[in-house]
Design a protein that fits this description.
171 residues; alpha/beta; Dna Topoisomerase Vi A Subunit, Chain: A, domain 2; 2 domains; 8 strands; globular
């Protein structure tokens, strides 16, 4: 609950006019020093497609950018906002994220260039593996490849925070 509060997650109960398609979805704000710069919406019902929706015309942005300033000499990168929240708030590893494996933009690399260590937490699927490899061509990173079919949330639920801390040798 605390992680959801800190990330300012909410469920759209009474959508604004023209935003009825977001009713009943989880609202995920993209927050910067200046405030909320974007919103994405996740279905709470796995059978409902699309799983994620964004505001019409919004450009893809990096998620959880405030962790860049909070981080010390290392930072993590996740695919997906909820994995990023889990990594940052529940596991305690500062982390930024992108909304999908194909969402990385070249200029994001500059934001991570000054970190001594950058860890990519790669989902255990082909897009996750390709995402991690593409970042490794742009930055000196350490790839933490998750098992087939797993992501940060599933590994956290089944193995706890120590699984990730052990992988990056942070305790």
């Amino acid at each position: 609950m605390e992680a959801a509060r800190l990330a300012q997650l909410g469920v759209v109960v009474e959508p604004e006019i023209g935003h009825e398609q977001y009713a009943g979805r989880l609202s995920i704000p993209y927050i910067t020093k200046t405030g909320v710069v974007d919103l994405r919406f996740r279905s709470l019902n796995p059978a409902v497609e699309p799983k994620y929706m964004g505001l019409t015309g919004a450009e893809t942005k990096m998620y959880n950018v405030l962790d860049i300033d909070r981080a010390g000499d290392f930072i993590g990168v996740c695919e997906g906002e909820l994995d990023t929240i889990t990594m940052s708030s529940c596991i305690g590893i500062p982390c930024i994220g992108v909304p999908g494996a194909n969402s990385w933009k070249k200029h994001y690399t500059r934001l991570l260039a000054d970190f001594e260590r950058v860890f990519i937490f790669a989902d255990g699927d082909q897009p996750g593996t390709e995402f991690a490899r593409s970042l490794a061509r742009e930055l000196p990173v350490t790839i933490v490849q998750l098992p087939e079919g797993e992501d940060v949330n599933s590994m956290y639920v089944s193995n706890g925070a120590h699984y990730f801390r052990d992988k990056i040798e942070v305790n």
